[in-house]
Design goal:
Layout (H helix, E strand, L loop, with lengths): L9 H11 L18 E5 L2 E4 L4 E4 L2 H5 L8 H13 L10 H12 L6 E5 L2 H20 L5 E5 L8 H5 L4 H4 L9 E4 L18 H16 L4 E6 L15 H11 L3 E5 L23 E4 L11 E5 L1 H5 L23 H15 L2 H22 L3 E7 L2 E6 L11 H13 L2 E2 L1 E2 L10 E4 L7 H19 L1
Parallel strand pairs: 3-13, 5-6, 5-7, 7-8, 8-9
Antiparallel strand pairs: 1-2, 2-3, 4-10, 9-10, 11-12, 12-15, 14-15
Helix pairs in contact: 3-11, 4-11, 8-9, 12-14, 13-14
The chain binds 4'-deoxy-4'-aminopyridoxal-5'-phosphate.
4'-deoxy-4'-aminopyridoxal-5'-phosphate (PMP) binds next to α5.
Length: 463
């Protein structure tokens, strides 16, 4: 191989991929006898692979990212124009698209004030942890440094983000992890029977109060932040129970704990509001976001804070340590904010938040209707176009459907031209929630096609 082959020479492309590309999240043994899949082109909700097979993508680029759909020329034009003008300048300086996008973003996030640019979801979360640690040192003699995270939540693939990760399966074999990250229980009401003491009623308040118990156990003077997903994504599409978020905010206020909301998946429209937390009328202190910020047209992530958090880093300029001593080289790429500006304009111009609410309701109804036909669907849940169907062997015991069977359902859909996903629980082998997050432009016809494929797959795989 000399690397000079043409993009139309598919067999050589597959050969090079098989020989040299290490795919994410993949066991490569099967690729010795079957071809790795290469996605070649996309338009709207549809993608084509190396053999020209068309699929409808019900998971926005596999991982909840392409919110405005594929093939957006206006984003490509905006990025191109910016790149030829200035592609990059890193370090301490600002940029024109960075400045414009910060104002657009803050306008959508009342109460928030500052945007810190970086390039992945994990990285944005790491920035938050570093801020919490530095605030602990500056204000609390290093004591208020602990960061609480929730069972089943995920915050990224770096070692720090994994220390803050509630999906044990992803962490196995990668320890040891840094200290000071403390786990709190999940809030999945459907599985409250697995949680000792969970009540019949007011589960949301109970689940939030369980976090308070942990804060009291650790000592509130040692806890700096609570980091939560607004709707847990990879951990099973977990919508919070009634009253949960309001009580969480009260607890954080009472014990002077920063509330860090990880909007890497929910951010920028996915649930039908600009941000997931906005469904619950609460105000965070820090918000991380990535995937939907530029719909994957460029790599960009942001950590957004209140002015109060920002102020803690500028109160004593005579102290040489008194600023956030952090950098992200690729936070200086201008393609990210240039793409993000146009991405946000598209969502506004095409009323995609409204479409997300309407199509999300429709898809929830269609998936719920499948429950009458398939006993394996234990619960359908979600918000906007961020939906999950938890599969069980028996509705009474709620025993998870084996992961292999869930995998066979996902594979059957894929074979029939519909790409869906499945989420991760903490327990190896128990990943049993099908995941749906089509682009925010989707129509009833698209949804019907997706739901029909799921219906067929459940029938074929489970008999
Ligand atoms: N937070 C959440 C909620 C995520 O789902 C993910 C990725 N799936 C991340 C953080 C990490 O983002 P990235 O892969 O861009 O580092």
């Amino acid at each position: 191989m000399d690397g000079t082959f043409n993009e139309n020479d598919i067999s050589r492309i597959v050969e090079a991929d098989r020989a040299h590309v290490w795919h994410h999240l993949s066991q490569h043994k099967p690729y010795e006898t079957s071809d790795p899949r290469i996605i070649v082109e996309g338009k709207g909700l549809r993608v084509w692979d190396q053999y020209g097979k068309e699929s409808i993508d019900a998971v926005s680029g596999g991982v909840w990212t392409v919110n405005v759909g594929y093939g957006r020329e206006s984003i490509a034009d905006a990025v191109r124009d910016q790149l030829v003008k200035l592609n990059f300048f890193g370090g301490t300086v600002g940029s024109i698209p960075g400045s414009i996008f910060s104002e657009m973003l803050i306008d959508k996030m009342p109460g928030m004030s500052r945007v810190y640019y970086c390039s992945s979801g994990s990285e944005a979360n790491e920035k938050a942890y570093k801020m919490v640690r530095q605030i602990a040192h500056k204000r609390f003699g290093g004591k208020k440094h602990k960061i609480l995270y929730r069972d089943r939540d995920y915050h990224g693939s770096t070692i720090g983000a994994m220390a803050c990760g509630g999906q044990d399966e992803r962490n196995l074999q990668y320890g040891p992890f840094p200290d000071g990250f403390i786990r709190v229980p999940h809030c999945l009401e459907y599985r409250k029977h697995e949680q000792a003491g969970a009540p019949e009623e007011n589960y949301g308040i109970w689940a939030a109060n369980e976090i308070e118990k942990i804060i009291l156990r650790e000592g509130p003077e040692t806890v700096g932040a609570l980091c939560l997903e607004p709707v847990t994504a990879g951990g099973g599409v977990i919508t919070p129970p009634d009253g949960y978020w309001e009580r969480i905010r009260e607890i954080c206020d009472q014990y002077e704990i920063l509330l860090h909301i990880d909007e890497v998946v929910c951010g920028v429209g996915r649930t039908g509001t600009w941000f997931g937390y906005q469904h619950y009328g609460i105000k965070p202190d820090m918000v991380s976001m990535a995937k939907g910020v530029a719909s994957g047209y460029a790599a960009i992530s942001c950590l957004v804070t209140t002015e109060a958090v920002f102020d803690m880093f500028k109160d004593d300029p005579s102290d040489v340590l008194n600023y956030f001593r952090d950098i992200s080289t690729f936070g200086g790429c201008t393609a990210g904010p240039a793409a993000a500006i146009e991405n946000m304009k598209i969502i506004e111009r095409e009323n995609l938040l409204e479409n997300t609410i309407n199509m999300g309701d429709y898809m929830l109804d269609q998936l719920s209707a499948l429950q009458d036909k398939h006993n394996a669907i234990g619960q359908v849940r979600g918000k906007g176009l961020f939906l999950g169907a938890e599969l069980v062997t028996d509705r009474a015991t709620k025993e998870p459907l084996p992961e292999k069977t869930v995998g066979a359902i996902v594979a059957d859909c894929s074979k029939n031209g519909v790409i869906i996903g499945a989420t991760n629980r903490s327990i190896p082998g128990q990943n049993n929630t099908l995941c749906f997050s089509p682009a925010l432009i989707c129509t009833k016809d698209d949804i019907n096609q997706i739901v029909e494929a799921v219906d067929g797959a459940l029938g074929r795989v489970l008999g």
